[in-house]
Design a protein that fits this description.
The complex is a heterodimer of chains A (180) and B (217). By secondary structure, chain A is mainly α. Helices cover 79% and strands 0% of the residues of chain A. In chain B, helix 6 packs antiparallel against helix 7. Classes of the chains: A mainly alpha (180), B mainly alpha (217).
Amino acid sequence: MDERELIARVRAGDAVAERALYDAHVDRIYRLAYRLAGGDDLAQDFTQETFIRAFERIAGFRGEAAFGTWLYAIATTVILNGLRKVRRFRQREADLDDAAAIGASSANADPDLKERLTSAVDDLPLKYRTVFVMHDVEGYTHEEIGAALGVPPGTSKAQLSRARARLREALAEFAGEWAS
Amino acid sequence: MSSDKFEDFVRRAAREYHRPPEAPREQLWARIVAERLARRHERQLRQRRQVHWWGWAAAAAAVLAVGIGIGRAIGPRPAPRPSGMQMAEAPPGAGEQVPAAFEIAALDHLRHVETFLMVFQSAARAGSAAPETSGLARDLLMNTRLLMDSPAGRDPRMAALLDDIEVMLAQIASYADRPEPSELQLIAQGIEQRGLLSKLRTAVPAEYSVLSAQGVL
């Protein structure tokens, strides 16, 4: 059964079709949520909310774009809004903690390249990190990223370029490894 | 070092960035199904409560209007409300007894207005008001004006409260002509700034609410 037919059946209230549509997309949504959230709990929350919203709004899906594109747009909205809330919450918590302790923990970061890269990517502004993860880590095209984030593909390219520039700066001490 | 080399390096290294485990498909599906059921149930409950409330309030408003109308038709005409100067000289309505029927009608009306305004504020916070809002506000506005001209309106505190209510209800009733979220927010702010809900709560004794809820009144 092709996706159009599945969507028509979901609109008609077919639970089996809902499950089939979920199975077709859940892995990619969960992967993206996990990469951006950095943990299973939030990734599950974001994936759950994405599918709930998608099923609620599927009557409004007009089929002008691929279903996947439409779904990734919902997913990125859910993930980015969720991460902003989490960041605000964590910021409030951090404000209450001992500032010295926070400084010490980041200053003593493991110099290992893998951890340094993780830390550098984590430190990117959210919009750069999103584009970087979608393109360089998960393999989305700039067209897909643009459609998901509601920006032109050119903006996605520009943000990726800025993200890489920041990473290059943050990882300057490992220059020998990629130059060789 | 070339840009290409850096990009290759980053791409290779970034594969490990927050590497996700396999998606817990069954667990996630179970969560989605449970959450959708819970939300649907909650929505149905909310709708049922809302429909019940709107129906009840409209019927109550109609009964109250008829009651006040009859009272005005058979009772004495109320004295005109005093001006601010007169209020300073002698408390208007002082010593005047408001007939019990009007007092009960007024309290009943205030309780309806309080419930209506609470629902309205909650809807305003959510960014939209129910389509019935305007009609119900007009009914309550009509009753408010009837009460203002009734013996219940002779009491200065009641008269001031009814004045406040009249202004707010008139704004809500006209909201339907300009259903913009900003307008909704302004009305909701007006209710807060006037402290209308707390005035209403003070005006309606708790025991009255209890008796009324039990059907004693």
